[in-house]
Amino acid sequence: MGDVVAVPERYGLGPIEVTAITAAEVEMVAPLTGSGYSVSGCSGGGGVTSQGGGGVRLSCKVGTVATVNDVMSLEVVKIGDTVAVLRIEPAG
């Protein structure tokens, strides 16, 4: 936990930080770099300020493939005792 994954700027997120790992899901936070935010497939929410920016919190279950901002695919491939394997790639 506490690991940080940098993602391409076009995804609309800053570095994604893993904040918790349970037997069933991974919790993450990330700053928003754009003026909007959307997610499907994982639970979570975020806030965007009128000037852009803000942050988001995600909880993703193992095996779920989420789409973030319609451009990024995030999958929790595997969860171990204190580690998780994430697959992050362009959506589509």
How is this structure best described in words?
The protein is built from no helices and 9 strands. It has a 5-stranded antiparallel β-sheet, with no helix packed on it. A hairpin with a 4-residue loop joins β8 and β9. The model has no long low-confidence stretch (mean pLDDT about 85).
Notable traits:
single chain; 92 residues; mainly beta; five-stranded antiparallel sheet; four-stranded antiparallel sheet; globular
Sum this structure up briefly:
Helices cover 0% and strands 54% of the residues. By secondary structure, it is an all-beta fold. The strands form two sheets. Strands 1-2-3-6-5 form a five-stranded antiparallel beta sheet, with no helix packed on it. Strands 4-7-8-9 form a four-stranded antiparallel beta sheet, with no helix packed on it.
Strand order in the sheet with the most strands: 1-2-3-6-5
Outline the low-pLDDT stretches: none
Q: How many H/I helices?
A: 0
Strand runs, count? 9
Please report which band the strand proportion falls in: under 5%, 5-15%, 15-25%, 25-35%, 35-45% or over 45%: over 45%
**Secondary-structure-derived class:** mainly beta
> How does the overall form come out from the CA principal axes?
globular
In round numbers, the mean pLDDT is 86
Rg for CA atoms: 12 Å
Largest sheet: 5 strands, antiparallel
Distance between the terminal alpha carbons, to the nearest Å? 28 Å
Question: What oligomeric state is this?
Answer: single chain
The percentage helix is under 10%
H and E order = EEEEEEEEE
